[in-house]
Amino acid sequence: MLEKTKVFFLLMVVLFAGCWLFASDKAGEKPPKKLLRVGVFDSRAVAIAFGGWEQFHKELEAKKAELNKAKEQGDANKVKELEKWGNEHQARLHKQGFGTAPVHDLLEYIKDDMPKIAKQAGVDVIVSKWEIAYQEPSVEMVDITDLIVKPFNPGEKQLKWIEQMKDIKPTPEDELDRLEKEGKL
Fold first, then answer.
1. CB neighbourhood size of 123 (10 A)
2. Model pLDDT for residues 124-183, shown as the tens digit of each residue
């Protein structure tokens, strides 16, 4: 009987040691890597959709009314300030709509829609396709341009331009600067 107890005890030790070794071996393994899905969009499309957006036009009209009022009142400083704003705003929109300038300021208008867009597209992250410096091959890229522009309610004209733009490379920033200086933008 004592011999059976020793064998049983030895068997339990071996079994426990095996379980411990197996468990510690598994603990050192990395968990399987989750596939990252990144939603990418063409920032030019955002600028085009924004340019036709009703809210943008309302804000622009308010600025024009403010400018006219400043002119009527003879407030040269305010006129100069608003004209400068208009020129800078237009130049930035041109760089966003024709080039690859960031559109963070435009996305602010739809920031509350971003989680819904990400969920609808099934993506973990949303970035401009022009701002990707590196992409690991296992990262899945999903074009969500159509979803990103939707909150701006683009009209037929904007949708046509966005579709045509897909086959056109962005204009380099230095070229846009040159065109702006020449008054061609």
1. 20
2. 999 999 999 999 888 999 999 999 999 999 999 999 999 999 889 999 888 888 888 888
Distance of alpha carbon 117 from alpha carbon 151, whole angstroms: 10
> Are residues 117 and 157 in contact, defined by beta-carbon separation less than 8 angstroms?
no
Quote the pTM value.
0.77
**Token pair of 80, please?**
């100069």
- 144 token code pair: 């969500």
Contact 119, 37 (CB under 8 A): no
Q: Which of 13-27, 110-124, 169-183 has the highest mean pLDDT?
A: 110-124
Domain ranges of the chain: 33-181
| Torsion angle of the four alpha carbons 124, 129, 133, 134, in this order, in degrees rounded to the nearest 10 | 50
Is the CB of residue 185 less than 8 Å from the CB of residue 87? no
The pLDDT value recorded for residue 67 is: 93
In 3D space, the residue among 32, 33, 34, 39 whose CA is nearest the CA of residue 124 turns out to be 39
91, 185 in Cβ contact below 8 A? Answer: yes
Residue with tokens 């003879």: 74
Q: Is 42 left (phi over 0), alpha (psi -120 to 50) or beta?
A: beta
